[in-house]
User: Fold these one by one.
Assistant:
Number 1:
Amino acid sequence: MINKLEFKAMGCHMLAALDLPEPQLAELEQVPGWFEAWEQSLSRFRGTSELSQLNHSAGMPFQVSETLWDVLQESLTSERLSLGLVTPAVLDALVMAGYDRSFDQLAPTSSYLTPNHFAPLGSLYEMQLDESNRTVCLPRNLHLDFGGIAKGWAADQATSKLSAFGPALVNAGGDIAVSGPQSNGEAWPIGITDPFNPDEDLEILMIEHGGVATSGKDYRRWQLDSVWQHHIIDPRTGMPAQTDVLTATVIAPSAVEAEVAAKVALISGSRAGLTWIESNPILAGMLVLEDGQRIYSERISEYLWS
Amino acid sequence: MTTNSVSRDTTVVQKPKTKNRDDLKVIITATALTVTLAFWNLFSNGAQKPVQAATNLEPGVTPQVVPFKILLGGPPPKTIIIVSQPGAAQPRSQKHNQQAAPQPVTKTASSK
């Protein structure tokens, strides 16, 4: 039977599910504690977090925990695979665009100062790493926000830990990791929310193993000088991405890979985004465009319930 | 016999007010054309068959025909048909055709 625990962490709604022979929450009750520890390390909204300290230490060597080191490595891989489109080096651009506090505290009608200019962002490869003592030295003009990468990474980690007790699934704010089929051998049914009608599902995916994530400009939006902004920054311009894709949902071998791929598809736009998904045999995806049109990749039919 | 040659004044004198008459002709013609087209549009509309949606609609899906006005001048009005077909974006496999859809354990959406 599927045991579920829902909680709030990283500014998002979280869900952990464990398939056990009987109702039991003891194992699941550990999960919020794991997320609290990860958030204290990885959040840019907490002034005392390890990431905030690293950002304040830009220009100087800073020794980081194993958690932050792992996420940095994951970020480097993401930046390389996405050809620079997905990078945590977006913090300054997000703040300039008005996303300078946790989304819960952003008043939608608030006006923010118009930034003087936007510019292409730096790269993680500008930082200096010393693996022997996990020391990081950020360039003075480079500050990090792990965003969805941290959520995807956390979903993968939590699922891996829970899988010691049984088939597990963790949903970290839309980034979902699945450890394997349910006890009865069936895949986990996962809905894709309709961005135009959040109470409805556009599709149901059947996932046995790996990750699913959705990236979108439909929810985390705010106004800057009466112009709607969103939180997906295009590193080539340093501005919120100009794209015809409203939401991108991608299936990948892990939640963090799915998160990165969904963001690439969103930033690239429908044509280039779908081509990129199709060219990568480990990915399958569905794009919802601003006009409501849906575009499916070839391989997603393997996962669709219908 | 002597022939007297008579020299003629060959200067052609323009008739007055010809321009005004031409203008009047143009105005009358334009008005007649406009009125004819207007009546044509008004009365030919009733004989037209309703436009059918090109797509094959699923049962229970109602096409919404957007009402339009006839405008004089400019391009002819077009009938716009908006077809809302939930969950029918492309043909898919029929592997679970006979079974009810399972209740999702969770949902994926942009981070909330």
Number 2:
Amino acid sequence: MAATGILDVLVVGGGPAGSTLAWSLAKRGLKVCVLERAEFPREKVCGDFVEPGGLRILEAMGVASPWDTQPAPAITRSRTYFGPRIAFQGPIPYYPATDGLPPHGMIIPRHELDTRLLENAAAAGADVRHGCAVTSVARADDRMVAAVKTDQGDVQLGARLVVGADGAQSIVARSAGLGREDRRHTSISRRVYIEGLDVDPGEAVIWFDEDITPGYGWMFPTGGGRANVGVGILSEASHREGLSVRKAFDDSLARLRLRHPGCSGAKIASRPLGGIVNSYGGITRNHFDGGLLVGDAGSFVDPMTGEGITQGMESSLIAAPVIMEALEAGRFDAEFLSRFDRAFRAYFDPAMSFLTLAAMVLRNHHLRRFFLGATERGFREATDDPDFAAVSGASFGGLDLAPLSIVGQITAKILKYSLAETPRALGYLLHGRLGGPLATDARAWTTGWNASFSDDPRWHVNWMADILEAAAKVQPALSTPVNPRRAGPPLGRIARSQALLQGIP
Amino acid sequence: MARVAKTKAGPAKSEPSPPKVVVVGGGLAGLTAALRLRQSGFDVTLLEATSTLGGNLSSETVNGLSHDVYPHMFCEWYSNFWAILDNDLGIKREEAFSPRMGVKMRTKGASEYIELHNATTPEAVWANLTSGALSFPDMFLLGFSMLDLAATPFDRRSSQQLERLDVNGFIYSRGYSTNRMARLQNYILMVIWSIQSVTTAAVSYQDFIKHTLTFPHPSPFAWLLKTDTETGIIQPLARKLDTLGCEIRLNSEVVRVELDGDAPLVSLKSAMAGTESETLRPDFVILATPAPVLAKLVMSGSTGRRIAERAPALAKLQTLTTVAIPVVDVWFKSRLPDMPSEQVGLAGSPADLTFLDLSQLWTAPEMSDRTVLALASSDASALPSLEPHEQAHLMIKGLHDYLPVFEPGDRWGDPKSDIDWEKSHFSANENHRLFMDTVGSWESRPRATCEGLKRVFFAGDFCRTDVDMATVEAAVQSGLQAALAVQGADAAMTGATRGDPVAILGHERFSDTVFLAAKFLLLPSAYLMTALSPLMDRFRHSFEGIDDGDEENPSRNAYSEPLYSLLLPLALTLDLLKTGYWLVRRIAEPAPEAKDGLLTVEAVSSTSILPTAASAGLMAASQALRGVAATLPGRVEPGASAAPRPGAALGPAWRRFGAQLARTVAASVASTGETAAPHRHWRTKG
């Protein structure tokens, strides 16, 4: 394999971000090559959850039906467990059918989704090569050179620009000195496919337990009595508190069988696999001399849900115009490519800076009782208050996130709750003791706080500093009136007009 | 009359001759408008009713000596005023003016002056708090109330009835007010603007405070002119206008301004009785007279031709009020000892006397061997006489009560006294009345342009500008706005702008969000001070034996009742919630800066800078915590133990944390002194 003529763009990695970028650039007439390490189809550790925003992009790219067999059912409902209790069950309240968004998500197994997406990129004119593992990327003169390991031996490939779309452990990022090793912004997950279920195929199930806090577990039905089951937990908590993801995963699965009536007969249908994701708050920068990072390689993962398929595709669609500009201007230096930084921050910061702050606060494993109690109460409120569910609920996977409204709603809820509980607390006080929910909350907080501090004062104060730092960066979330993700990335708009033309909602 | 005949023919559009503008009124506003319009190529005639230019900024020469109408203070932030001096007249501020960092106060019987500084540096703030003008808590509350006023999110639409509020009423509505701070606030307003705090519009005063608060960028309180205003400002300005070819006609009183269609007709008072009065027919007219004169002019003329008929709102000009401040220039026969160089207010004097030592300021040789004071009475109604020299002598005797170092004599002209009566001069200043920013006046004040009037424009310190309180800068800015409006009206008719567009400089000032954030942070201290204020009084009464008289007895003041202090936590909570609410709103949607749709020529806006400031603050706090964290013990082997150890280590660890935090804060406070200058970028350039 020898390079014939110089490539415009070399995309390293053929996951959703890489293939979306290759498709987008090839459509614009660029000479693009995608290097994928594996032979497709291949397994990928993931929850397989594609949000409405992701479906909108798939639709626009013409990958509306990415399944090998029959399509998965639309996910429109959810059920949330806190321990053995169901705190919320009903339609997902923040999936409105606006802006060309379908009112549902879908569980598309990654071995199917990624294969279709990459085929789509090839169909658009991108040069797709499987079984090519990039081992390093370096800048030579005015071009980028990638060292590639293939079945036929090692080769070098030159391109004007390199885009790292090679996942959480990106080689490209490491070559550029942008590798992510910050456990505060990394999550570990483990998932398996199960079958033999008798569940509502349109209902996603998630659960919160102490052994996976901060984090959560999921059961996403793929249809046909099958589902993707897994748990995800913050790497830092797992590392520091000795929480074994493997054990938590096994326990979660056992508990699921007990708790969910439809899962009692669940059988393991695949080998459990573990993986990691890097979330948005860990981004230092995603541009370097000669290239960019997109998808998981660029840490475009929601810090609250760990979702990254949609965000990865969005980051690619934001990168595409920047790459076009760079090629037109003949500028591939980091300074010019910093346009990508401005572009993706304008798009993602209004939501992500807020979610990062929330994730930062929830990071303290010692305060898990308090946080779990508060979250559970939030989910229960969502059952009774549709408005609260639609607005504040969006912080767990909603596209149209409105942080200022969320802050307002939660403040109002806390005030209301405190006022309502004050008489009971006073009643207990008159009997000479602390009691009632307010006292429980206060005790959970002080106990957790003191435990956290006495356990590791340095970590605790650093945690406080992290929260302040995240708060210092939260301004875009408070001052952007309409979340840009709602309208979608540049291609999202094309998608909408196409959908309208075809009469599809 | 040739010129009149020519203009009566009307300028044909094809003719190259420029449009003719008549500016009525030769005060600073009129002079500024004339200057800018002449520079833009208009044919400008300036009409002044009296024999001197300058209006309230003029001087009178008596027996060969100059006497300023008023001793003026020129603030650092008067950007448009300083621009004219520097760019057009070539006058350098540092050479022609002398800076003053603050003002002084003297109480009766005291031997020392109390110094009040412009609160633009931490040192100046501290000096003010400990100045002794009031007890520390009361001084703090006074300063805080000004910050609070600056932070109040007034809407400024004249339809907002609730905002028709006076400064004293504003203070009364605060949960932390004390009687003493309200009195000092009233005093400050009296000595600077001769207006009681019960009549000063809170919105107007807020505007002034916002302009003045430049913390932490040190700047003088004011600059004082080293000579009389005629020599220092007005003459250079008149010469400049003359050089540019602007026609200036003195002793030309305008008695009528009428409209013939849209065209203005300006009628002058006839020089001799019986002769026909002269009528000018300019293309545009700018009325830059004092408010009472303007109120008459817009109502003058015959039915169907009156300005007020086209713009009925102008009838409300009649409600604008003015005040005269009598000034005595007191020439002593010799130098008085230990005179300060700042403006001095005599606290508690019935006529609210202030004085400024001109002999330490002016470079005039005849002042070299003697003290000359400009002594003003901000409340002339307290003088029990209508006879000028009696009034003057009463003021001098009032001065003697506070400064018994000279012999005042028994009457004006008494040879036994230490005063050189020949050189001394009194003026009741009835012809130089000052505009008062009274409650509700804003809605009666004209803009530079008025709907329905295409060729008539207005200027004067009482006009609506972004400088609300009547000041020199307001006069200059109103002149610029009127010039810009004429330029715009001309451009609308001819299709091209004549000359360069008139530039109006903005004023640097903090945005609402910054004031709100500062208020939010200081609120707890303010309420603490309110609780301390009566305690301090008790302390003074019982231990120091000081008795301020019955009216100062704290038990008589509902706001100082120790019992009332028990309610303060509630008041504080409410205030915090309200302030927090507005703070969040302002962060989310920066304040609408436009006031009542104030002119499109209004070039002043200020964007929200709080995000930057707040972010910087949070980042600094975060860094400080990291510094603290680095000194604390951490777990050696992460993941070794999940169970929290018992709280044995808790006490010492928190103590270490506290001590380290204190050290870090102290270090960062110490370092702010060195890095004060870069903080300037927190402020916006309007």
Number 3:
Amino acid sequence: MKERFILLVVTRNAPGVLSRVSSLLRRKLFNIDSLTVGRTINNRESRFTIVIEGDLVQANKAALLIERLIEIRSVKVMKPEQCLRREIVLATVKINSPEQAKTLHEAEEEVLSQELSQNGDLITVELIDTSQKLDDFLVKIEAANIEVIDWVRSGVIAMKQA
Amino acid sequence: MTGAQALLKALENHAVTEIYAYPGGAVLPIYDAMSGSSIRRILVRHEQAAAFAAQGYSRSTQGVGVCLATSGPGATNLVTGIADAMLDSIPMVAITGNVFKELIGSDAFQETDIVGICEPIVKHSYFVEYADDIPRVVAEAFHLAQSGRPGPVLIDIPKCQQNATVSAEIQKKLENKEKFELDLPGYKLPPALDEDDINTAAQLIKEAKQPVVIYGHGVILSNAETQLKAFLEKTNIPNVWTLHGIGGYDNTEDLSLGMLGMHGTGTANFAVHHADLVIGIGIRFDDRITGKLTEFKSNKKFIHFDIDSSEFNKNVTAAVSLHGEIRDTLPALTTTVESGVGETWKNWNEDLVAKKDLWPLDPGPSDRLTEIGVLNQLYSALGEEDIVLVDVGQHEMWAAQRFFPKKSRKFLASGGLGTMGFSLPTAMGATFSGHPVWSISGDGGFQMNSQELATIAQDNLPVKIIILNNSFLGMVRQWQELFYDKNYVDTPLKNPDFVKLGEAYGIPSFRAETLEESEAMIAKMKNFDGPILVEFKVAKEENVFPMVPAGESLGNTMLDRNNKIDKA
């Protein structure tokens, strides 16, 4: 059965590591849903959050292959529900009516959000939540015919629940 | 001391005595420094041959071969040899020059991103940004190449860092032969063995009725030959081997059933097909040994020994996976498994030994000269230390079925990548083992690296060169005959006169056309001092059997054109 798995990967913070990890997944034909990377509190380490589609066997295979790369410190395979997950969206929308403005505000209240700028009828918002709730936000505003001028997602970051 | 001098000093400190190399613009500083180094240069005629010669040294000696090429085309010419080393887990250090750091990324003359190109085919790679890093990178490269699952490591050094002066501290450490600290925090060697896994494996063996051991390259790479012998002698489990397992155990024992797989023996394939327990030792269940995977996996359990945990559950799901150096993990099982356990499968063993007599290997025709005839004569003439390097194709399989060296590292082949042109350049490196070296190629494969006759002549490398000339790309022709209605497209070859070719390079060269001439030539080659080439004109359209047609099950092994093992 196809589902999503999250790989939590700690690597050395060195040039080329991102390329080694992503090209490995490409050549083994894994479909990457999302991949984020940033430094940890240790400047010499990077932390990847990779969301892949597949079954548990495939996810474990991917983890073993990644672990084989020399610059990898650790790999954990997680089911999404075992993790705290967050993603950020920046979106610019065009509001044409008071009804649309109301819908936007209602949708914003469903997620952690703030309006970053306004220029006439163009509003740029920042939204933080799970990927699912950010998808829901989009469905809601599109249903109200709110035009999305620009939309960017960060990809998921995740950590094991403490 | 320059970066180039530091590189050579670091290599010397790692006991490197030869380097297989070809000069060019981006490695000129290294070549300039070579005149002050103890390292002998072997001047190949194509960089691919440098990579294979380095492999030949590694494969035959347990050392780490080193090759060197310039940037751009020099570096890309190494690629096939590096990929071959990766698929066969051969330790190797490949060094390339690159353009000045300021020019990297500018599409400069002879610039290629060799680190990027090689990403999927190396165990690890380095782009050296600072000359001071060179000795540490060399130390790490040798450690990575040899430890765990071995493999090739690439070091790409821009020319500016070859020219740069290293710090006094680094120079002093190099001159005093001090060790450079490795900076490999993520590199993990296998953990200690889990005792529960050993007990489970011993229990599975106790419950088995028809067990088989498949052993492979991992046994040899882990130097676990004596440990394998102890295990097989205690358990009396029938054993088969992969192409790279040849020499891992005494293949002439009664319960040694033959090579497994697409051209495995009838008995080996039969045994694995009908086994209820397969113990894979240092193998990766490659498609060439499993045949149709779903049938291979059905009705049997697996115990899998390997150094690389990513091999576990890749092709087959094992009941027990034993992760570690086989020389450490296998003795634990040998100790735990009950003595006399082999009584349980006595009948199975007797049946298999009977099958061996029923399905002998084709002795070859006596009325004409064929590959099998030459190989039989060669096998009889081989000394215990002789090293045989085959190329790829029919002769490789005929030899693999028939050669049972008493020691490991005596039968060398390009297994995973299956590179035509492997034998001749790899044999050059193998001569540095100090043992007699025989290179066997077909007429097709030989011409993929025949330029190396010049290297062999220039350095007087004592390679005994056998060309089995059937004027065809024999294995492809066999497939065209059996599966494509004899539609021989581009498999017949119009060849040069190989004797004249050898002579043109100054290598004593001869020809044999009959079984009698062949036998005399093998005897001549055996006692010949220095390089010698003999072309054997063999029959054109012979086929390799047994054979499992691609995608079919081991149960469908064709013993010959008309008989399959499960119907015979």
